[in-house]
Amino acid sequence: MTLKTIVIAGGGTAGWMAAAALGHLMGEHIRIHLVESEAIGTVGVGEATIPQIRLFNQALGLDEDAFLRATGGTFKLGIAFDGWTAPRHSYMHAFGDVGRDVGPVPFQHYWLRAQAEGVAGPLGDYCMNEVAARAGRMHRGAPLTARTIPAIPYAFHFDANLYAAYLRRFAQNRGVSRTEGRIAAVERDGESGDVTALVLDGGERVAGDLFLDCTGFRALLIEGALQAGYEDWSRWLPCDRAVAQPSTGTGAPMPYTRAIAKSAGWQWRIPLQHRTGNGHVYCSAFTSDDEAMAVLAGNLDGEPTGDPRPLRFVTGRRRKAWSHNVVALGLASGFLEPLESTSIHLIQAAIARLVKLLPAMPVAAALRSEYNRQTDFEMERIRDFLILHYWANGREEPFWQACRTMALPDSLQAKIDLWRETGVITREHEELFTEDGWLQVLAGQGVTARSHHPFADTIPDADLAEYMETLPLLYRREAGALATHESFIARHCAMRR
């Protein structure tokens, strides 16, 4: 049987990203119908992204500057982690390459040797994105001062609610239909167990062949109706609450996100054109809600422009992101805290996976299994990357001490052991974070490698020292030639207010 109708339950970022992509790619062949209620709010705090979002926007044919103008967007070159190892210490997980390979093995082996010999600077000196980010600079396209300097990969900060509204207009212009209403019941086929229709509170029935659950933490279809189950990862990622509050911006917006360690969690600071996004992610076993709110209130970037918004969550994933004829997207599929800005990427990745594995009807069990296998792998590897930040900390508060003593997943422990013993970092299959990403967090948080690849010893001492001195000079010269982030936005994509 041919797939004729896809019903999307819920709007927000997940629902309208799915609607925009499916409407754009297959709206002429498959009916796309979204159901949402304006009375139900969305979380809408996921305002920082990673560079893959550009691929999604490009696939839709969105004009980058128009999108940024409509969403109050700014550019993002990485994430600065402040205070994770010591109160005044800061390192950056920046996008793009770290160093330039000068032989048969990755840059980190030459850096490790040079560090041992006292001729290497901090790792961030060898990343063009970090040098530009710290200087508050932004550029698109080829480098200005030398061909050997890498182009700057970038992502965005934007208002997630404005992004959803932007995609809603885009999707509806491509034939996606929308129904306003709360979902009161979910009808299922008595024989197959598949969902057949959503019943709204006014009695309207919305039937479909394939259903996408974008109902957020409520997970009305995947859990409420199908009881797919949930795998709890809070033993590794113990933060279970957050409070978010916007504020006025102060000064020029920097082209990076900040993740600032606090006594029982961490604070995000995300600069937009029209405001700053602030939030405090914390563990309720080590601090109270009132204390957590006071920490955020005392560290806002400007005056508050809205009331604090509390959130509760359990970090983990749905045991089956695709069950029967229902695919869960966004928060309905699980939750990984926004420490590395992966929330919107996971929506994007799920949509791409769905398009690639789009089924005939009824859905083949093998297809569901493959989708779930890929989803599980991606989320588990992101989970490990997040755990590393908590485990490799240097703070003395009880929360952080508890994180240092946790038993790690075998997959993460193996990565750490390999790095410590050999300086080697491996990337498995289509794992999201690159070797350079792992390198920046491992080195940035003080996990030291005891050795390096022997090939790194083949470069003469003088040549190695010259290379380690020259590369940062080239990057600083390039950064000095770039426009400031603020002037770049003013020239290309300033929000109309």
Rg from C-alpha positions? 23 Å
Report low-confidence residues grouped into runs of 5 or more: none
Shape category: globular
Mean pLDDT: 96
**% residues in beta strands:** 15-25%
- Count the E strands: 23
Bin the helical content: 25-40%
Oligomer: single chain
Q: What is the first-to-last residue Cα distance?
A: 50 Å
**Count of DSSP-assigned helices:** 15
Helix/strand/pairing category: alpha+beta
Main pleated-sheet profile = 7 strands, mixed
Biggest sheet, spatial arrangement of strands: 5-4-15-16-17-14-18
SSE layout and pairing:
Layout: E1 5-9, H1 12-26, E2 31-36, H2 52-60, H3 64-71, E3 74-76, E4 78-82, E5 90-94, H4 107-116, H5 128-134, E6 137-138, E7 155-157, H6 160-172, E8 177-180, E9 183-188, E10 195-200, E11 205-207, E12 210-213, H7 220-225, E13 230-232, E14 241-247, E15 257-262, E16 265-271, E17 276-282, H8 289-297, E18 309-312, E19 316-318, E20 322-323, E21 326-328, E22 334-335, H9 343-356, H10 365-391, H11 398-404, H12 410-422, H13 435-444, H14 461-481, E23 483-484, H15 485-492
Parallel strand pairs: 1-2, 1-12, 2-8, 4-15, 12-21
Antiparallel strand pairs: 3-7, 4-5, 6-23, 9-10, 10-11, 13-19, 14-17, 14-18, 15-16, 16-17, 19-22, 20-21
Helix pairs in contact: 1-6, 1-9, 9-10
